[in-house]
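re: that chain from earlier
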Amino acid sequence: MSFYQTFVRPLFFKMPAETAHEIGIETLKIGLSSKLAQDFIAKRFAYSESFGELERFGLTFKNPLGVAAGFDKNGIVVNQLAALGFGFVEVGTVTFNPQKGNQKPRLFRLSEDKALINRLGFNNEGMPRVVERLKKIQPNCILGVNIGKNKDVPNEEAIENYLQSFDLAHQVADYIAVNVSSPNTPNLRELQQADSLEKLLSALQKRNQELKAKPLLVKIAPDLTEAEIEAITDICLRKNLAGIIATNTTVSRAGLRTSSLRVAKIGTRGLSGKPLEKRSNDVIRQIYKCSKGKLPIIGVGGTFSAGDAFQKIASGACLLEAYTGFIYRGFTFARDLNLGLIKLVKEKGFNNLDEVVGIECR
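^ sequence. v structure.
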């Protein structure tokens, strides 16, 4: 076990989950605030081998592993995370107007399951403030901005709310992700329904073309039927989306080791981590097959190790994101996973990562 898992994590895990998260963000912010500190850590966490240039939807990634939306909601530690070895950071989810989110406590650990349950509710400082912060940095990695709907905006008015966020995010983001799949904002997942989603993505792509077009992706839930996934994939292809992020958290509680009494006490909303891994991979495979490999997929859900990462890529993902795995594995997570993944690719006889993408679907 690493130093983090042996000594640091037990201390963090004695605190309420959200408190520990806030301390972690503040530690990164202060500890790696200077370029000198970031460069020092980046050298310590440098890879002995390289993935080469990973070309994905017109962008070049240093490596395939990114930080999923939800970790750095307000764009506070982008370059700090890049220094730890992540190839990209997806800030957010950010709404146009600031939100406090749902009532605390709203973040819980299920250590037996290597999982988290959150019902944060898009707590963030609002797009204007986040964008102003991001304008002041020069990102050392690919920067994604994940946009969501304000809780007090009815679905009938969602398009305008998303457009307001999109216009601002477009100024700083390398790519923009549309979150219509969080289970923590009432009725948000209804926007995944084919008619609603097509109208939303059409409006965003129209605006995207009016500006200097940037890659636009949509993040979907794992709790969709095969027919719904097929319909969403078709819409994304027709609207020329850059890709799909699969998947968000699940409302399912199937197969958990944590006592049902404790799970019931925590309540509903989004579960992330190891229990999500299989379902996430199933959704990735379906998207890959439905799109015949033409639609790039960022795979999210239950990635803790290089083996997990390899499996996701074999299922059809061309990039990866992690949040819960990072929480459980610690500061060396990105370095360890990337080094392990490079090793696995070579051991299995592949020349590069691209050769692995979707091999289970061929």
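Residues 194-210 form the longest helix (17 residues).
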